[in-house]
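Proteins fold reproducibly. Next comes an illustrative record:
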Amino acid sequence: MDKGALQIVEYWDLVPAVVGGVIGALAGGIPAWLLAKRQSDETLRRDREQRVENQKALAFSVVVKLLHVINSTISLSNHVKSCLALRNVPDHADMEPWQVLVPMIGHADEGSIRFTADEMGVFAAANEYDFMQDMMLLAVRHSSSLATFQEYCVMRNEFRAIGPKPADFDGQIGGGWLTPEEEDSFKPYTIPMNNVVVGLDAGLEEDVCLARTVAERFGPVTAKLFGVAKFADLTFPSDDELAAMRQAPITGT
């Protein structure tokens, strides 16, 4: 056998070794790759589930805050509307807004409610930008309306210290007589109060409309977001229920 033949034989002698090495590598590598992929898929699955659970927790946090904001908005609006409705009673038709809107307490905490970036990020990630902005605007508007009412309460209490004292009472409504000169002397105090009441009443009307929109959309938006039939629905009073809450208080006996 010549030299060329010997080389061919030697080269072909390497083929079984090379093929065996490749097959051995594949035999050991494929199961390892499959195992690694399975572990990776499992990790990704757990991460997705954890992310969804975190989003649900943030959404539930939004629910709690919205309940505070919406209930407080309705409560404050009903109080203002029911007080102003007293002017529709013939015996009190000549009363000014500041005379019928009485101060009240119980709204000390809700004004500080704000939504965090993480909470709003849940809705931004779902491309619900309009709804996200409505919720943020509702919180800001409610805080502004509440601060306005609290400022009015301060103004009215300060005026009570220097204003005329009622001569008699019809239920919770005090009455008395002022001369034209006395009435004019109090206008620097009463006109600003009236302006605040009128602006507050109009602003609260818009707050209630926005609160209704947010409450009605929250359930469908979150159900779609989490792929469930129902996540958390927010109820809102009907127009008839709101009208019943806003009736003028009974005066007299």
About this structure: The chain has seven helices and two strands. Residues 3-84 form the longest helix (82 residues). Strands lie at 168-170, 173-175.
